[in-house]
Structure formats: structure tokens, C-alpha cells
Automatic annotation (TrEMBL):
Gene3D superfamilies per record: Periplasmic binding protein-like II (3.40.190.10)
Signal peptide: 1-24
UniProt superkingdom: Bacteria
Organism, as annotated: Homoserinimonas hongtaonis
Annotated PANTHER family: ARABINOSE-BINDING PROTEIN-RELATED, BLR3389 PROTEIN
Pfam families reported in the protein's UniProt record: SBP_bac_1
Bilayer-spanning residue ranges: none
Keywords: Signal
Family matches, as SUPFAM superfamilies: Periplasmic binding protein-like II
Matches recorded under InterPro entries: Bact_solute-bd_prot1 (IPR050490), SBP (IPR006059)
Protein name per its UniProtKB record: ABC transporter substrate-binding protein
Length: 430
């Protein structure tokens, strides 16, 4: 695989367009008979139903099909899992057997550190079955994790509030988005919710402006080479500054968390206090979990991020990413079998039915029933270029300094040049 953290849409479109292929694997794979008791620890980022319940069911099913195997499955809040729990566990030598692995720079760092099992041969059939969607989790031609979800970022919105504000069509340009912000303020609704307290939700805004500002060839070369000399990186911050000046975000956004509780940016959407949120494809499920009945609301809609007037990037580019699972290098063989079962067509179909994201198995696209996820998958397939989340693309060392510099722009205490300086300083320390 190219060491770039980017991937052509041709490598991702397979997520939703390939026809039904190979038969699904069964729980336990080839190691159904165990000579002794085996315990597998499995960490994921689902802390509420329906996804938390699905993963618990999958663990129980695997145990039933594999006598002597116990699966200890635990869901953790995403930020805790990614920022501290997994890194600390890997460094301590007491890591889980199966755990979340993010694409791009994160899988590269974990693989180069020797933490991940090479799945290329031991899970060859599963990898082949998933198609080209697996490529962002490869390094030097080897597969170190397998994605169960991949989708496009976009703006999730309350259709009822749009109707109340007299917004007749979803914005297609940034100027039209600014008009929608004005209309929503007129009905005393926070136009856009952002969980800047968790840093990365605010970071996504700068990432998107960078994708809009930087030509494709710059994105393809600058990110793997850590070269941020092109003026488009500063322009991204300038565009963000100009947009923030329109006062589009919820009150107290600097302290607002992203996805935890009624006062999070997700919660503000769920309870009708805010009209829009820019977020990844998992948002349907996380918003639904925070509504009164725990269901995805009928008024929830989705549209691609609007084009930025006068920006120098490819108008057909889109930002997206996914979630995958890897296996620790010292995990028992049964952990690989568990991963195969998680990625089986049956489990992927049930994942699609939860509405928690866009599955990667090419045979289950018809199982998506959420029209917003269908639209997200379609936008991904129609894009001319797909950019992974920039913090993930760069690698774990970049996340906090990059996102903090971006949040400083939101707070009015940082500049577009500061963001580039944070990137350059982090790169220099690599």
C-alpha cells in the first residue's frame, strides 16, 4: 500500500457496490475444538445500544460455538479508548486480544511498534471477502486490521427545524450554509452543534476546510511527507475563522462534549436544541441513543458538506473514515477466529440493521435501511477523491496538538498559522 493516508474512492466504493460474494464464515472458524480453556479480551467503542448489545450477542454466540472459550467484551467511550486505554495497554504489555484500530497513521504506528498480528495469511479468506475497503488498514502490503464500517462525513440535521426556519433545500455551498445559519437563528435555535470540549469534533471542521482548499495532489503528497508548506493549509484556517465569525455554533461549545450525554453536541441534536452537526456516519446511532425513546428520529436528515466558494481543492473530494478491529500479536489463535466471525456476512448484516454505521462487507449493502446512511454511502461512491480524517491519516502523535491548535481558533486565541506550526513541530519530533 502507498504510505499515504489517503485512498482513492475506487478503493472504498466497493464498500457499498460489490455484489454478494463468498459465503460467510461461521463462529470459531477452523479452531472450533479447544483443548483447554481460553479467554479472549475484546475492547470496542460502543457504550450504548443497539451496537453495544450486538457486540455482546456476537461474543455470546462465539462462546457457544467454541466450548472452552470465554470472550470478555467491554465497551469504552471512544475518546478514552483511543487516547489513553489502548495506547497505555499496548505500552504496558497487558493489551486486549481484539481491539479497535483506526486507519492510516494509527495502524501504521501500532504495526511498526510490533503490537499487531499480521492477518494477511491467517485471515486471507475474510480479507478477500471484504474487498478493497481493507486497504487503509494495510502497511507495506500486509493486513494488520479489518474494518467493519466505513462512511463519509457530512452534516446531520433536523428536517423539522429546517422546515420551521423556512429552509427549502439543503445547502450546497458554504454561502448557502451561512444563509441557513441566519434562518435558524431567527427561530432561536442553535444552528450548529459542535463538541469542541473533546477537541476532535472541532478538528473535523478544519480538516474539511483543508480538503476543500488543498488540491488532491497536495493531499496525496503533503500528508505522508509531513510537508505543510503549501499555502492551502493556512487558507483552511482562514476559512474556518471566517465561518466562526458568523457565530454558527451552540452556546458554550468550547466545553461541550461530542457524544456523551444530553448536553453533548449529539444530545443537542437529539433533543432539538440544535439543528445541525458535522460528523461521521456513526452519528445516526449515537443521536438515536440520546433521544427519549432511544430510536433514530424520523426527522434526522443528512447532506454532504457544502462546497467552499473559491476554494482551490477538488469540489468532488469528500472526507471519511472507518472503524476496524485488529488482533494483538500475542493473542491466541481463537482471537483471529473471533475477528473472522465479527466480519462475517451475518454479523455485518446485523450491524447494518442497527443503523450504527455503513458496513464494509460488499454483500450486505441491501441491509441498510437508514436513508441517511444510504445517502452517505452513495456520496462516498460518487466522490472523486476520499481523504481519511486528517488526524488519523497523520498518526497518533499529531492528534492532540493539531486538534488543540484548531480549538484555539474556535476560542479566538489561536491563528491559522498556529495550526500549521503545530503540524510542523509535531512532524519535526517524529
Amino acid at each position: 500500500m502507498n504510505r499515504s493516508r489517503t485512498t482513492r474512492v475506487a478503493a472504498i466504493a466497493a464498500v457499498s457496490t460489490l455484489a454478494l460474494g463468498l459465503a460467510a464464515c461461521t463462529p470459531g472458524g477452523d479452531n472450533g475444538d479447544n483443548d483447554g480453556d481460553v479467554t479472549i479480551t475484546w475492547w470496542h467503542n460502543a457504550t450504548s445500544d443497539p451496537l453495544q448489545g450486538l457486540w455482546e450477542d456476537v461474543a455470546a454466540e462465539f462462546e457457544e460455538a467454541n466450548p472452552g472459550v470465554t470472550v470478555e467484551v467491554t465497551g469504552y467511550q471512544n475518546e478514552d479508548l483511543q487516547r489513553t486505554l489502548i495506547p497505555n495497554a499496548l505500552q504496558s504489555g497487558d493489551a486486549p486480544d481484539v481491539f479497535m484500530v483506526w486507519p492510516g497513521g494509527e495502524v501504521r504506528a501500532q504495526a511498526e511498534a510490533g503490537h499487531l498480528k499480521d492477518l494477511t495469511e491467517v485471515a486471507a479468506d475474510t480479507i478477500e471477502e471484504m474487498g478493497a475497503a481493507v486497504s487503509p488498514w494495510q502497511l507495506d502490503g500486509k493486513q494488520y486490521a479489518i474494518p467493519y464500517a466505513f462512511g463519509a462525513a457530512g452534516i446531520w440535521y433536523n428536517t423539522e427545524l429546517f422546515d420551521k426556519a423556512g429552509i427549502e433545500a439543503t445547502p450546497e455551498t458554504l454561502s448557502e450554509l451561512a444563509d441557513a445559519v441566519t434562518a435558524l437563528k431567527a427561530i432561536d435555535v442553535a444552528p450548529i452543534a459542535v463538541g469542541a470540549g473533546d477537541l476532535w469534533p472541532a478538528g473535523h471542521w478544519w480538516y474539511q476546510f483543508a480538503v476543500s482548499s488543498c488540491p488532491t495532489d497536495v493531499l496525496e503528497t503533503a500528508i505522508p511527507e509531513f510537508d505543510f508548506s503549501d499555502p492551502c493549509w493556512v487558507e483552511a484556517g482562514e476559512q474556518l475563522e471566517e465561518f466562526i465569525a458568523t457565530d454558527p455554533f451552540n452556546e458554550g461549545f468550547l466545553a461541550t462534549p461530542g457524544q456523551t450525554g444530553a448536553d453533548s453536541s449529539n444530545g443537542l441534536i437529539a433533543n432539538g436544541q440544535a439543528a445541525m452537526e458535522f460528523m461521521g456516519p456513526w452519528n445516526s446511532g449515537t443521536i438515536g441513543a440520546l433521544t427519549e425513546d432511544g430510536e433514530v428520529p424520523e426527522w434526522l436528515g443528512w447532506f454532504p458538506f457544502p462546497t467552499v466558494d473559491g476554494a482551490g481543492g477538488d469540489a468532488g473530494s469528500i472526507m471519511g473514515g472507518g472503524d476496524g478491529f485488529g488482533v494483538h500479536v500475542d493473542a491466541p489463535d481463537e482471537a483471529v477466529d473471533l475477528l473472522k466471525y465479527i466480519m462475517s456476512e451475518d454479523v455485518q448484516r446485523r450491524f447494518a440493521e442497527t443503523g450504527a454505521g455503513v458496513p464494509t462487507h460488499p454483500g450486505v449493502a441491501d441491509a441498510l435501511t437508514d436513508p441517511n446512511l444510504i445517502a452517505s454511502a452513495a456520496a462516498l461512491g460518487e466522490a472523486s477523491y476520499v481523504q481519511l480524517w486528517i488526524d488519523s491519516a497523520l498518526g497518533p502523535a499529531f492528534g492532540n496538538p493539531l486538534n488543540q491548535a484548531i480549538v484555539n481558533i474556535f476560542a479566538g486565541s489561536g491563528t491559522p498559522q498556529d495550526v500549521v506550526a503545530a503540524l510542523e513541530q509535531t512532524a519535526a519530533a517524529q
